[in-house]
Amino acid sequence: MPSIRLADLAQQLDAQLYGDGDIVITGIASMHSAQVGQITFLSNSRYQEQLALCQASAVVLTSGDLPHCRSAALVVKNPYLTYARMAQLMDTTPAPAADIAPSAVISPAALLGDNVAVGANAVIESGAELGDNVVIGPGCFIGKNARIGAGTRLWANVTIYHEVEIGQRCLIQSGTVIGADGFGYANERGEWIKIPQLGTVIIGDRVEIGACTTIDRGALDNTLIGNGVIIDNQCQIAHNVVIGENTAVAGGVIMAGSLKIGRYCQIGGASVINGHMEIADKVVVTGMGMVMRPITEPGVYSSGIPLQPNKVWRKTAALVMNIDEISKRLKAVERKIGKDDTQ
């Protein structure tokens, strides 16, 4: 990790410096593990007492927590956001590829912009267009007539099918597949007849997609992923799904076909969302949510039974299995009470 003077770091982060600006910062660490030469952050005042034990050379925090800090400090309004920007400044992640590897197979009919890098054994088919500063990792496949915007990076073994369009400054992690056929079939007397998927996938700018996620191409219309969307690992986005800008999708989420999700939503991990319906803007679905009906109003929505000790869960399950009988008995009691009241 590169080293930087604390004063220089404060200037780049637009932070207010308290203490020795000549301290050299060589890394970022959590509060409980930070050592001399490292910087940490306090984003929640509930953990304020940890400042007394923290060994970091500097701490990023708010003005309200500053009196409890024994080391140098960078004071900001949002320490967690500043941590994100600080990590970007000190990031040492290598590029997925550098230059164009001799083993890369690139069609003469493909169009590559300036400063494009293509890793070993990658394949780029005819008609594909790559913007300036695009990086294609080893083993990637870029299908016919696919378009990838400037500054987008693909890690190893990403598959981009034909006609797919990806915007600028996107990041796609290893093993992801974009543009595979959606799950479209018609049934003829028990035999499944495949429906060719004639749409494609269009992804906006600044989209990040985790490892081993699949985004299917549309059946007729296109699958659309808006600007600024972030999608975690191992998600399934079915054909014709539309995800609005700046929505976040956590790991293991399954979205059925022709679902429309609004802007600024947050979908918790392992959630399952039915297709052919809409979810409004600014909706939060907590983890393992099962969304079977449209959501028309912003807010936080949950489903499922949280983890319980086994003995307690068995009692809960028994009550759930008998809820119909309990309901009938309750209604009978209500009818009797109502009849007694009228006599």
TrEMBL record:
Q: Which GO terms describe its biological process?
A: lipid A biosynthetic process
Q: Which domain of life is it from?
A: Bacteria
Q: Which UniProt keywords apply?
A: Acyltransferase, Lipid A biosynthesis, Lipid biosynthesis, Lipid metabolism, Repeat, Transferase
**One annotated GO molecular function:** N-acyltransferase activity
Please report the organism this UniProt entry assigns to the protein. Answer: Chania multitudinisentens RB-25
Quaternary context: Homotrimer.
Q: Which HAMAP family match?
A: LpxD
The family assignment reads: Belongs to the transferase hexapeptide repeat family. LpxD subfamily.
Q: What is this protein called?
A: UDP-3-O-(3-hydroxymyristoyl)glucosamine N-acyltransferase
A single Pfam family it belongs to is Hexapep
What sequence ranges are listed for the domain UDP-3-O-[3-hydroxymyristoyl] glucosamine N-acyltransferase non-repeat region? Answer: 22-89
- Classification via PROSITE patterns: HEXAPEP_TRANSFERASES (PS00101)
- Xref: NCBIfam families: lipid_A_lpxD, PRK00892.1
What does this protein do, in the record's words? Catalyzes the N-acylation of UDP-3-O-(hydroxytetradecanoyl)glucosamine using 3-hydroxytetradecanoyl-ACP as the acyl donor. Is involved in the biosynthesis of lipid A, a phosphorylated glycolipid that anchors the lipopolysaccharide to the outer membrane of the cell.
* One GO CC term, this protein: membrane
